[in-house]
Amino acid sequence: MIKAAARPSARSVTSRATTVAPGDRFGRLTVTAEDEPYLWRGRFSRRRWACDCACGGSAVVREDSLLSGHTVSCGCVRDELTRERATRHGARAGDKRRPEYQAWQTMLHGQDARVCARWQAPAGRGFKAFLADLGPRPTPQHRLVRRDPARPFTPGNTAWVESPPRAGVPRRLITVRGRRMTLRDAAAEAGIAYATLCKRLERGWSTRAALTP
Ligand SMILES: [Zn+2]
């Protein structure tokens, strides 16, 4: 009994811990005001709060998302993580959409991945050197090939070579923003793996969705 009088009951502690009020901070978010509630099947489900983000943005967030720590920003934190993943090899964010970047990646992670140290340099220098040595891919029909496949990928042994479609390999074409192109080229241009694009199309995704990285 003495203990119970000395501190608030468990119930009031719990309710205090599950209440959001203006001025509360959750990660980068500061709660400013209550917003329209979240409705589920037309009924009241959760309170929602308008929040200012430290980045200058704002968001309306469900109370349970704030309290659980699920949402800690207006979306800028997630965007930053995405950018970080995209630039793991150190290239600029825009680089990964380039077909040259795809070719460079395929070369580095290919079955025979013997690649000169210059093209493997960290922090984006490898890709920059690769691009400087070989130049941009002249056309979508050009492939990265080694003059002597028995030797590693080096500036002297590697070039963009125009290759005709391989006989016996069916080339499915799709239309992307009015242009007919092969799945392989569409995947390279969109910055996604060819296998991923094939899988998505097999699952019935729209062309637009399938090509979204
Ligand atoms: Zn933000």
Q: Compute the average pLDDT.
A: 80
Overall outline: elongated
Q: Strand order of the main beta sheet, please?
A: 1-2-3-4
Task: Count helical runs.
Answer: 9
What Rg do the Cα atoms give? Answer: 26 Å
- State the secondary-structure class: alpha+beta
- Beta strand %: 15-25%
Give the SSE layout.
Layout lengths: L1 H5 L3 H8 L7 E2 L2 E12 L2 E11 L4 E5 H6 L7 H11 L12 H11 L15 H10 L7 E5 L11 E5 L10 E4 L2 E4 H8 L3 H9 L4 H4 L3
The protein binds zinc ion (ZN).
Structure description:
By secondary structure, the protein is of the alpha+beta class. The protein has 3 domains: 2-77, no CATH class; 90-164, no CATH class; 168-213, no CATH class. It is built from 9 helices and 8 strands. The strands form 3 sheets. It has a 4-stranded antiparallel beta sheet. Residues 1-17 have low confidence and may be disordered.
Structure summary:
With about 210 residues, the protein is α+β, with helices and mostly antiparallel strands. The chain has helices at about 1-5, 10-15, 65-70, 75-85, 100-110, 125-135, 185-190, 195-200, 205-210; strands at about 25, 30-40, 45-55, 60, 140-145, 160, 175, 180. The strands form three sheets. The chain has a four-stranded antiparallel sheet with strand order 1-2-3-4.
Jot down its keywords.
single chain, 213 residues, alpha+beta, four-stranded antiparallel β-sheet, two-stranded antiparallel ribbon, elongated, disordered N terminus, binds zinc ion
